[in-house]
Amino acid sequence: MALYLIIAVFGLIIGSFLNVCIYRIPRNMSVIMPSSRCPACNKPIKAWDNIPVLSYILLGGKCRYCKKEISLKYPLVEALNAFLYVALLWRYGPEWYFFLYCALISALIVITFIDLDFQIIPDRITLVGIPVGFLAGSLFLPDPFARASVLGVKASIIGFLAGGGFFYIIAVLSKGGMGGGDIKLMAMVGALMGWKSVFLTTFLGSLVGSVVGIFLIIFRGKGRKAKIPFGPFLAFGTLITLFFGQEIMTWYLH
Length: 254
Hints:
single chain, 2 strands, two-stranded antiparallel sheet, 2 domains, mainly alpha, 9 helices
């Protein structure tokens, strides 16, 4: 139980940094300097006002200085990151590759919220994630569908080609309907988790995306040609594959 608590606190702290990334990366700002500031009044946020989730509650969701409301997105990101870290510990146990998967989860959270707001998936994440995925998938990480064995060089390369190649073909055929960020994201996922993960992630992301798209058309008046970012659905599919890929594949095959 103590380990779960430690990981939860660790997840909250990293989640606070993810908020910085979500705000600054699409604006081409440094994620290191300057220190955290209120987006409305630009006043530096004191350390005691920057405690994940707790400070938001104590401040009543408002800036201490200008009283401007703080977006609920900030504590949501922190709590979501902590929850997924704890869930990952429950799923995989305290394995030595635990923190590599934590990095993947946090990257997917940042990608999701940036894509929702700006309809972009930053190269600063995926172009770093692809070589890291090659290295980790080839040498360290287990195959999500056969955890007793390391994914391996061959599977990592095939996963990269399957993810990037498949989505590149879709982008060409759809004449711009699929963005370059989605291509790089799936190349990263393929390098990190293998080709089977690419196809399960794609299926799950497309399924959920279709349901959400239909809902928006029927209940929110969105047109059929309205742009809906696909990155969040691919991130969702990747998470489901990471946590339950082996069980889903076993159920399907039987």
